[in-house]
Specification:
This protein is an alpha/beta fold and 308 residues long. It has a single domain, classed as Stationary-phase Survival Protein Sure Homolog, Chain: A, CATH 3.40.1210.10. It has 9 helices and 11 strands. The protein has helices at residues 9-14, 25-34, 57-68, 111-122, 142-147, 149-159, 177-202, 271-276, 293-303, and strands spanning 45-49, 72-78, 97-101, 104-107, 130-137, 164-169, 213-218, 232-234, 242-249, 255-262, 280-285. Helix 7 links the parallel strand 6 (164-169) and strand 7. Helix 3 packs parallel to helix 7 and helix 4 (111-122) packs parallel to helix 6. The chain starts with 8 loop residues before the first helix and ends in a 5-residue tail after the last helix.
Length: 308
Amino acid sequence: MQRKRVLPLATLLLCVPGLAGTVPAAAAQDGAASGAVSGLARPLRILLTNDDGYNAPGIRLAFARLTAAGHDVTIVAPLTNQSGAGTKTSNVPSVTVRHPEPKVWAVDGTPGDAVAFGLSAVFDGNAPDLVVSGTNFGPNVAALATHSGTVGGAVAGLESGVPAIALSTGGVTAPDPVTTVNAMGPTLDFAVKLIDRLSARAGSGPLLPAGVGLNVNHPVVGADGKGTAAGVAATFQDPQQLLKEDFTDAGDGTWKVGVKVDLRTPARGGDVEAVSAGKIAVSPINADWNTGPADFAVTRALMAGLRP
C-alpha cells in the first residue's frame, strides 16, 4: 500500500511565486557590502553546523551570507568531515573541542554531537532561534537524506525543540567540485530569502510548526554552476535508493566496495523530480519515525487479535 503524502501548510506557503528563483550572487554581494538588509523581519540567533567540517567552503559561505543578512550566527560544527554520519551521536566520556576564532567552535564528533554541544555549552541553554545545517557538498535527496549528516544536524536541533533547516547543493549525478562550490552561492542566496520569509511570517513566534524542519536541496544550474534555479517546489523524500553498492570478494576475507548512481523514474512530487528539473526542493522533515495516522490504523488492524 502506497502512503499518501501530505505536505504541511507551512511548507506549501513557502513555495509561492514570490519565493521562486534566487537572487543573483553579485546582487547579494552588493547588498552585503552596503550593509543593506532587505525584508529582514528580525535578526535571528542561528546555530550553524554541517557534516563537511567547520572549515568547509559551504559552511563558511553560509556564515558570511547569513551574517551579512543581519543575523547573529555561530558555527558549531564537526572538526573533521563527517559525511554520511546520519543522526549518530557519540557515547563517549569526553569530547575534544576547539575554539579557533570568535563565533566558531569545532567539535571532534558528528553533526549531532556538535549541535548538542552548541545548544548546551555555547548557547548555554538559551536556545537559538534556528539551527541551519549546511550548505552540504552534494545532494541529500531520496535515501541519501536518510543517511545524511547534514540532515542529521538539523534533526538534532528538532529533537531539542529548535526549528531547523538542512541545506544541500548538488544534482542527482556525481558532484563536480568546481561547479558545486559555485552553486553554493545561489544556494545561500535562496537560504537568506527563505529565512527572511519564515521570520516575516512568524513575527515574534516560532519560525516553523513544532517539530517540523525543512530539507532544502538546491540544484547545480548552468555550465559554471552559478545559474538561477527554475523555481521552488514543495516536495517529499523520494523513496528510491539512488545509490547502489556493489561488493566484490577480494579473496582475503575483505570485499571491495563500489558505488554507482542508480537513478530510477522519480516519484511525482518528490525531491528527485524537482532537483532533476533544476528546481529547489523543499521537503518537510521531523525528528522521529512516525508515518502518520493512516499507517497507524493499518498497523492496528494488522495487530488485532494477536496475543503474546
